[in-house]
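User: Teach me something about this protein's shape.
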Amino acid sequence: MRYVDETLLRNPIAFAPLPQRKKDASEPLSEKDIRDRRDKVKTIVGGIIANVVLAFLSFIVLFPLIFMVLSSLRTSSEYMERVAYMFPENWFNFDNYRRVIVNENLFLGYRNTLIIVVAVIPVGTLFAAMSAFSFAKLKLRSKMFWLLFLLSGMMVPGAVLLMPRFIAYKTIGWYGTLLPLIVPHLFIHVGTMFFFIQYMKGIPSELFEAAKIDGCSTFRMFLQIMLPLLLPAIAAQDIFWFMGIWNDYFAPSIYLQNSQFETLQVMMAALNKDFMGSGAQTVVFAGAVLSCLPMVVVYLILQKFFIKSMSIGAVKG
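Assistant: First, the predicted structure itself:
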C-alpha cells in the first residue's frame, strides 16, 4: 500500500483512468446500444402520439364552445345561409348580446341564481363541516349508526321524494318562491359531509387531544384548528356545489311559477323555446355564452382546486 502511494505521488498519470476508445462508425452496435436506441425511439414516438391524441380530444371538447362563441357574433340571416361556416363576417357584432340583455332581462336570472348560491353555499358548508368534525374526531355514542343512517338517505332516488316535497312546499306557502331551493340545502348536505369526513381522517387526532388538554373547547378546536386545515377541501367542494346550483334546471322548473324568481337556466330554456324555432338561433348562442361565462371564469381562477380535489381523501403511501 505504501508502494502504491509513493508511485502515485511520483507518477499520478500512471493511475489516471484510460480514455474510452471511440467506436468506429462501421463497427456493429452492441445489444445494449440497440436496446437503448430502441427505447429512445419508443419514448419519442409515444410522446408524439400522446400529444396528438390529447390535442384531438381537446379540440373535440372545445369545439362546441368555440362554435357557440363564434356563432353568437353572427347575424340570423348569415347563420341560416351558411350554418356549417362558423366564422362571422363582422367580428365585433354584439347585437345578439344587446338583444339578450335588454329585451330578455337575463340578468334577472343571474340575480336569482346568485341569491341561491350566496344563501346556500356558506351556511351549508359550515353545517356540513361541523357535522363531519363530529363524526370524524369526536367520541360520540352510536355515531356510526347515525352516519350510516344519513348516508342511507343518499340511496333514495330524488324522484321518489319529488311529490311529497311539492305538496309540502305548496301547503306551507313556499311554492313559487326561492325558499324550496334554499332552505332544504342549508343545514345538511350528506355528500359534502362525507367528503369532509374522508379529508379529516387524514388530519392527526393528536392536535385536538393536545388542544383539549390545554383547555380548548370543542367549538374552538373546530374553528381555530380544523377549519383552517379544511380550507382546500372546502374550496374544492364549493366549486362543484356552485356548478350544480348554477346549472340546475330541474328543481327551479318545478317549484317556481313567478317570472320574477326564475333562475338563469329556466330563462335559458324559455329563450331557447322563443328563438330557436324563429330562426334567431344566434340570440340563443349569445344567451348561452353569457350563461356559461361565470363557470369558465371560476374554473380558470380556481382550476388548481379541481385538480387537488381528485387526491383529497385518497390513500397516501
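Now, about its shape. The longest helix spans residues 31-71. The CA atoms of residues 116 and 274 lie 26 Å apart. If you'd like, I can walk through any region in more detail.
User: That's plenty for now, thanks!
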